[in-house]
Amino acid sequence: MTARSGLRSLAAVLVATLVVAASDAAAQELSPGPRRELVHPGVGHEIHLSAPSLAVLPDGTPVLGLGRQDASGRSVSVVRVEEAGFVTTRVDSTALPADAIHQPPGLAVGSDGALLATWSSAKAKPEGVLFASDLRLSRSRDGGRSFAPPLRVNDDRPISHSFEAVTALPDGGALVAWIDSREGWEKARTYVARFALRDETLVRRDERALPGDTCVCCRIAAAAGPAKRVGLFWRDVYPGSVRDMVLAVSADAGADFAAPARVHEDGWSLEACPHRGGALAFDGEGRTHLAWYTEGAAAKPSVRYARRAGDGSLSPPLELAAGGDGVPDHVALAATPDGRVLVVYEAFTAVRRWIVVRGSRDGGASFGPPQVLSKAVKAFQPAVAAAPDGGFVVAWNEEAFPTLRTVVQRIDASAR
Question: What is the model's pTM?
Answer without folding.
Answer: 0.90
